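If you are new to this repository, start here. Below is one unmodified record pulled from the training split, so you can see the exact layout before writing a loader.
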Amino acid sequence: MKDTEQKKDTPLLVTRKKMRFDTYLTILNAIRNDLTTKRTIHDTTRISWASCSDIINDLSRFGIIMEDNDPDRQLYRPGPKTTIYKFTDTDHLILGLEITPTSINSTIIDLGKRILFKKAYILQEELTNINLYRLVRNIFYQVLEDADKSEESITTLVFALTGALDRDNLIWITSPKVHSVRSVDFHFFQQSLPFIKQVFIEHDITARANSIIRTDNSHPKNFAFLHISDGVGMAVMNNGVYIKGERGLAGEIGHIPILGYTKISGLPCYCGKQQCLESFLSSKAILHHISTTYDIDLDDLGEMHKRLSEEQSEEVRQLVFELLMNTTITIENIFDLHTLYIGGWVVEQWHAQLQQTFKHNVQEGSWLGGPKDIVFYDEETTNPSYGAAISVIHTVMHRILMEVLT
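And here is the target side for that same chain:
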């Protein structure tokens, strides 16, 4: 072998490197899951005390974790002080940005899912292909200033976007809600922001689901997340993995045609077609139906119960419930769910009634009585910029360990 040739790792060496990498990753995941002392990490992971101690010291030296000196988190018990660890809040941070037609909503998190900063920035001009890069860059630097973070501290950018995405190639293909944006390449931000090492894009509905179900450390492996507001969106997880489809477009239940349906005087869908489910079940469609049927113009669904008579309110409720029932039973029969999460501004108008009977009615109407559980959520409790950020933590951890261990 020539001296200039590099020796390849033997299979044994490759195995040892992988075992070392996996051990570091196990401890990082333990800290992420609130095991924050050497003792609790050792007891739970069964990694030897010596290895556990050495790795925690390494992670501290690498600047990935730090001691948590918050007095509210200290463990009060006799004997020497117990050191508690947390992820650093000055490096390896993730910035999630949700882009909507009217605002860019930001959330900064550490690797432990802890929110360090959150703020919405109202757009002063309509988003287009021409101004999007400039507007996002400006808001990026405004976030740094408002959050009092250095540019070096943010190493990962994640965008929550509506419409059709090519996630692998970082292309925002099109959005029915942001009409002037087409084929936007998000590699730009990795190339133009010097300290950004990774950029990701995520569907807004998946990010919204993450902000609900991944806030805790456990969630069902089989569920659907249905969001009904100004549109109708859905994300489905099967056996712990989101169903994406061939082109990443799976879950577009809002664009299923309801041909011949006339009970609600619908609107043209965002996608341009006339009889999508979204044409009848969105908040705008319901407001349009109230206007054309009762000649009552409402600015918001929240005014409905005050402005409509009891008879009119009941008629609207029955129409919405019928569509909700047909939609959820169809979803259950196709995916055989453990849990259905359902919420959004439309659903919230009838929370009290839905919580009394909806689960029973869906189970009674579906084949073999599923889903096992139905969970209602409020739209204001969701945060797509946060959900997008936490969805890439595991990938970011891999990248960081590859950098420091090789």
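Two things worth knowing about this chain: The CA atoms of residues 50 and 307 lie 69 Å apart. Residues 93-210+385-405 form a domain with the Nucleotidyltransferase; domain 5 fold (CATH 3.30.420.40).
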